[in-house]
Amino acid sequence: MIKYDDKLKIFKLDTINTSYIFGLDDEAGYLCHYYYGKKLESVDVRYLSRLYDGKYLPGVNARDKNGFSDVAPFEFSTGGIGDFRPHALEIIDKNGSIACELFYDSHRIYEGKEALTGLPATFSNKKGDVQTLEITLKDKILKLAVKLSYSVFSDTDAIVRSVKVINEGSDSVNITKIMSLSLDLDNEDFDLLSLHGSWGRERTMEYRDLGHGFTGVSSQRGVSSHQEHPFIALTSKNITQTEGSVYAFNLVYSGSFEAVAHRNQFDLVRVLLGISPYNFKWELKPGDEFIAPEAVMVHSFKGLSAMTTAFHELYRNHLIRSPYLHKKRPVLINNWEGTYFDFDTEKLVNIAKEAAKGGIEMLVMDDGWFGNRFDDNRALGDWKVNEEKLPGGLKELVRRVNDLGLKFGIWMEPEMVNPDSDLYRAHPDWAFEIPGRDPSLSRNQLVLDITRQEVFDYVWNCVESTLKSANIEYLKWDMNRALCDIYSAGLPADRQGEIMHRYVLSVYKLQEKLITTFPEFLLENCSSGGGRFDPGMLYYSPQIWTSDNTDAGARLLIQEGTALIYPLSTMGAHVSVCPNHAMGRNTPFETRGNVALAGTFGYELDTTKFTDEEREMVKEQVKTYHKYNDLVREGDYYRLASLRENGVYDAWMVKSKDDKEILVTFVLANKVCNVKGRKIKLLGLNEAYKYVDEETKVVYGADVLSNAGILISDMWGDYQSKLIHLTKV
Ligand code: DGJ
After folding, report:
1. Measuring from atom 1 of ligand 1, which residue has the nearest CA?
2. Which residues, listed in sequence order, are joined to residue 414 by a DSSP beta bridge?
3. C-alpha of 232 from chain center
4. Nearest residue CA, atom 2 of ligand 1?
5. Which residue out of 335, 374, 528 has the highest number of ligand 1 atoms within 8 Å of its CB and is therefore the one to mutate?
6. DSSP-based three-state secondary structure for 315
7. How far is the CA of 411 from the centre of ligand 1 (A)?
8. Is the confidence at residue 62, as pLDDT, over 80?
9. Residue 29 gets which letter from DSSP?
10. Lower CB density within 10 Å: C or N end of the chain?
11. What does the alpha-carbon distance between residue 660 and residue 727 come to, in Å, rounded to a whole number?
12. What is the pLDDT of residue 541?
């Protein structure tokens, strides 16, 4: 999969369908990028760098090294040496200079993949499934070594990259910007695709023209964020699911990030993806190393669908570690939208009792069970059971829920503190606050400085003692505000630029401790809905709460954008009541169920308020979940139609890996009068097969399903939906 041509000094990384080629420029010793695209047999594509026409080579035209630097497709670009595009690495040395120039030093190719200390990263699952190339570049003046790692996989078209910087000198160097990925491409009339959003409408696909200069997205919030996502893709114009070219990039990181494409005067495009340089400065002392988070690259020349498959395979096979990855998740009832803060043991037990009748398998007690938490103004940080609400504590409640045959899960927001809390009164300096300034509150809360050991220990003890205090089998780890007012008493003034990243590392460390202390646990991450839904968190939890917006209509767009890169098995999705709490919209109960079936599935309401009809429908929905979840969780997902594009309906399908089963979901969002049915063409089928529709018993050739489509008759009313189950004959 990875080859090195010693004579040509070319590295060739082959995935199943793509090749990524770069090499050593003979004259100057720089590492230059040559090609990323459809798999090639040929190795020698050096001419593609445009440097071999002689004009720009420093040896030929030493007078004009700048002419070289500003056009060379550097594999890892650096600042201060005449490349006027944005760079991957920027430093300040002891003289205050920013120059860094990297030359090839050595490389090694090995089977498998090493872990990235302290960071989430993809891994090898079995012998022979991953190969890694590590290249060491050096700046001899700075005595800085930069190790670039690339891994390729036998079962997905993804390539992952990471960067390690090592200070081999005797003076400190400050890193002011480090991108995990730098990729120079030629513009092919690209659009830039990103996943834009807000609270309640996370990760909505958005295309824009790639003009000259910078185009991109970022988060400076300390979380990957609702607003922008650590993902961008360069696509050909009017790309479809099956046609067109896409280069896609995703960062395995949960904090502030930057993802940009820069198109320069020569129409060369540089893609950069990494930790946001905003408020970032990292002191690298002699002997220290800094590891930048892993970045994922996927190229498809067959439209978006193949890109999606590559990401899904990578994350399911090589990123998520939970024992629940390949298991059905218990159908849960979460009381948040049902009760908000207004609950006690009796209410929860009654909710559980009703839930049990419908076959629901776990009760999750959300926010409000601890301290003086009767609303969201107080008590975060005081992780002691409120005995007024829960007499007898967690033990008693959990015992009663277990007696009903349900598992028990709990909500915590470990990283936060309210000023009105015993914790804050005892340790006002434990929250991020800038000396002399009033901190900015958000939802009336502050962020704990978990980069400090004593704060970290307190937080961990709260999590551990809560989870050990009763038979708790699931944790929803919430995080409800962005980071600002960054100042830590734990570091000197000139190192405050390290805090944002150190914070993310501390979150990872807490969650690593959690999953090693409670290996059988089901962890679901959450951040005001889907504000920290990213590959970094998936390394710790197999599922993430996708959005606080549980409206089935809004979820179509949110789940479309999320499933563009993340497997359906990772998307927390629940049925809630109507009018919806976020949107005020009414949708049929059946459709709410059908949309939630595309995720982890559960309910978010007060079961004691079910109508008789709903009570019966829950039983059916839970049965349907059990019938299809293996397929939905493990199968191949294809997007068939998009409400975002057509304004009327949405459709997707999942096909089992052995081709035996297909489940199509169709939702008519906005009814158009007098339409005589719609044809939905299926994707990814072997056209030699035949399938029977379980409901109508009609047998279709897969060639017909693919080229003519399945006919969905018109429905009566908005937000009607339909599941179509096909099995191979
Ligand atoms: C935000 C989450 O997204 C909600 O599901 C709920 O847990 C609230 N926080 C509780 O405060």
Report:
1. 528
2. none
3. 12
4. 528
5. 528
6. helix
7. 9
8. no
9. -
10. C
11. 6
12. 98
Distance of CA 529 from the midpoint of ligand 1 (Å)? 7
Atom of ligand 1 nearest to the CA of 366: 7
Q: Is the peptide bond before 579 cis (omega within 30 degrees of 0)?
A: yes
Ligand 1 binding residues, C-beta < 6 A: 336, 366-367, 411, 478, 480, 526, 528-529, 545, 548
Amino acid 404: pLDDT? 98
Question: CB neighbours of 69 closer than 8 A, spacing ≥ 6?
Answer: 81, 82, 83
What's the pLDDT score for residue 56? 61
What does the pLDDT read at residue 660? 98
Please indicate whether residue 157 or residue 81 has the higher confidence score (pLDDT).
Answer: 157
Which residue, 96, 198, 91, 178, is CA-closest to 139? 91
In whole angstroms, what is the distance from residue 686 CA to residue 113 CA? 34
Mutate to test the pocket of ligand 1, among 343, 474, 526 (most ligand atoms within 8 A of CB): 526
Domains along the chain with CATH numbers: 2-318 (2.70.98.60), 332-634 (3.20.20.70), 640-728 (2.60.40.1180)
What ligand 1 atom has the least distance to the C-alpha of 529?
A: 3
Confidence (pLDDT) at 537: 98
Name beta bridge partners: 207.
193
Separation CA 409–CA 280 (nearest Å): 37
Query: Residue 281, Cα to own-chain centre: how many angstroms?
Result: 25
> How far is the C-alpha of 64 from the C-alpha of 77, rounded, in Å?
19
Atom of ligand 1 nearest to the CA of 476: 7
* DSSP class per residue in 361-415: -EEEE-S-SBTT-SSTTS-TT--SB-TTTSTTHHHHHHHHHHHTT-EEEEEE-TT
Nearest CA to ligand 1 atom 9: 528
- Across the range 635-653, mean pLDDT stands at 98
Query: Whole-angstrom Cα distance, residue 702 to residue 682?
Result: 8
Q: Rounded to two decimals, what is the model's pTM? A: 0.97
147, 31 contact by CB (below 8 A): no
Query: Which pLDDT tens digit goes with each residue over 511-562?
Result: 999 999 999 999 999 999 999 999 999 999 999 999 999 999 999 999 999 9
Active site amino acids: 478, 548
Cα(367) to ligand 1 centroid in Å equals: 7
Closest CA to 165 of 295, 233, 76, 237: 76
Ligand 1 center–CA 444 separation, angstroms: 14
Q: What percent of the chain has pLDDT over 90?
A: 95
Q: Tokens 């630097």 sit at which residue? A: 69
Q: Render pLDDT for 678-724 as a digit per residue (tens, 0 to 9).
A: 999 999 999 999 999 999 999 999 999 999 999 999 999 999 999 99
Beta bridge partners of 231: 250
